[in-house]
């Protein structure tokens, strides 16, 4: 999991701090970043893993989250009982074409004249495996700012059991994250929340 702000980012807002509370602040950054992922249903960093998709029989497959670079491996199979077949790198087109440097790869296409035997992504569940680096190459500025503000708010409210914030992050007498999200951060997170259609 990615962290959406650094220790230096947070301490720049609290220049009076030394190094005594670095471990506490680092723990808060990790916890706030994880909470942002849960609250929005998204990840704002990168992760290098294998993901499995379902093809639709066409030569195109849309990918979410986007890839930040060319995949290291693409494999297909006609059904879950069949062995995986590697699609040659030369057969894969990264789309959209003409992307500026750093822009995400939103879908993959198998070329019109592939060197291998697969002309499409098989139409069945879990028939495509893609290994690569997923997500965003940089954390959005507003997410970073929301993380910094929330961590600062949590740090300053630690131990304030008499406030309107519940105490309960670990055993360190700090307020719960959901009750400590500043208005700006909450607005930013709402704008990124993934909608799930029933």
Largest sheet, in brief, is: 4 strands, antiparallel
Give helix and strand order, one letter per element, not per position.
HHEEEEEEEHH
Rounded to the nearest angstrom, the distance between the terminal CA atoms is: 28 Å
**What helical percentage do the residues reach?**
25-40%
Supply the number of helical segments: 4
Rounded mean pLDDT is: 84
Percentage of residues in DSSP E strands? 15-25%
Number of domains: 2
Q: Give the strand tally.
A: 7
Strand order of the largest sheet: 1-7-3-4
Inertia-based shape: elongated
Gyration radius, to the nearest Å?
22 Å
Name the poorly predicted regions: 162-173
Structural class comes to: alpha+beta
Account of the 3D structure:
The model is unreliable at 162-173 (pLDDT under 50). The longest helix is centred in the N-terminal third of the chain and has 19 residues, at 22-40. The strands form 2 sheets. The chain has a 4-stranded antiparallel β-sheet, with no helix packed on it. A 3-stranded antiparallel β-sheet has the order 2-6-5, with no helix packed on it. It has 198 residues and is of the alpha+beta class. Helix 2 crosses helix 3 (141-157) and helix 3 crosses helix 4. A hairpin with an 8-residue loop joins strand 3 (73-76) and strand 4 (85-86). It has helices spanning 7-13, 22-40, 141-157, 183-192, and strands at 46-53, 60-67, 73-76, 85-86, 92-95, 105-110, 128-135.
Keywords:
single chain; 198 residues; alpha+beta; four-stranded antiparallel sheet; three-stranded antiparallel sheet; 4 helices; 7 strands; elongated
